[in-house]
Amino acid sequence: MEQLLQQIEKYKQEITAFVAAGAEEVEQFRIKWLGTKGLVKSIMGEMKNVPNDQKKSFGQLLNEFKSVAEAKLEALQQSHSPVTGTKAPAVDYALPGDPVSVGSRHPLTLVRNEMVTIFKRLGFAVAEGPEIEDDWHNFGAMNLPEDHPARDMQDTFYIRKPEDGNGPTWLLRTHTSSTQARVMEEQKPPIRVICPGRVYRNETISARAHCFFHQVEGLYIDENVSFADLKQTLYFFVQEMFGKDVKVRFRPSYFPFTEPSAEMDISCQICGGSGCNICKHTGWVEILGSGMVHPKVLENFGIDSNKYTGFAFGMGVERITQLKYQVNDLRLYSQNDIRFLKQFTGVV
Ligand code: PHE
Asked: Which CATH superfamily is domain 107-344 in?
């Protein structure tokens, strides 16, 4: 009996000290100790020779011995991959990782940034102003007095009219010309700024109209600024934006804050000028309004209109984006549909 106990102790030490060089040795370990003809089994067989009064404590000892062997085998199997047969970590670092989904800039942000970059290269600074604006900066200063019929051109979201008739009427700005007004209020010529930002108009939402959209407007005031400067600046812009082949044409137009005024069309970037739905089969699309700053506007800000002249222009970022990326429904820009937005991943 004593001998048997010693034997078990020796086996335990042997098991604990065992080191395997590879999966094959682990297998040999298993066969030697825990196989059907293994040593654990044969020691278990000794049970029948143990006197009855010792059977209980001896049984416990045997069970413990068996657990030691089993735990060792498990540990060995974990650290030796049976696949390669060599020492390999339990984690397979060669497996491909989980894909990380990369976000993208919104197409309007991409195009706005591109527009800003082009004008910056021409020396324009960027100015920003509030989206909640007062009547004066949005309309009055821009030569649209309260009873001016041109106010009907822009359906406005009014926020609050003062009940007693005093103080400003608040509204959501209908164009970023309001920011130009704020720049003229604060700066002396020469002034050369672009005003990117969101604007609001009370329109029914459809594929072609939305109650908010984005503009980039520009203002240049200095001595001897001419209509030729305006044309050349805008021509440079569209060539940078759409390539050297783009054609432009100016059409006379009317804005209360510019005189003379003109709208600029470019050759349709979707069909190349042969006619499609976007250009309504004319080959041309209108992209901006522009003109020479009305002397009254300059004087509203104490700028001497005999000494200074200026040009201004304004365009929609959505329209430029539509022509650049062929987006045919304005609503796509604000629906946050990941399938739409994903198409711009990697575009910088
Ligand atoms: N403010 C005009 C608009 O919102 C655009 C414009 C700006 C036209 C400057 C002429 C000069 O449509």
From this structure: Bira Bifunctional Protein; Domain 2 (3.30.930.10)
Residue 285 tokens, joined: 């699309």
Mutating to test ligand 1, I would choose from 217, 229, 253, 264 the residue with most ligand atoms within 8 A of its C-beta, which is 217
> Cα separation of 54 and 47, whole Å?
10
Around ligand 1, the residues with Cβ closer than 6 Å are 175, 177, 217, 255, 258, 289-291, 312-314
Residue 234 Cα to ligand 1 middle (Å):
14
pTM of the model: 0.72
Give every residue of the chain whose pLDDT is below 50, as ranges: none
Cα of 340 from ligand 1 centre, angstroms: 30
- The domain spans of the chain are 2-84, 107-344
CB-based burial label for 141 (10 Å; 0-12, 13-18, 19+): buried
Give residue 152's pLDDT.
65
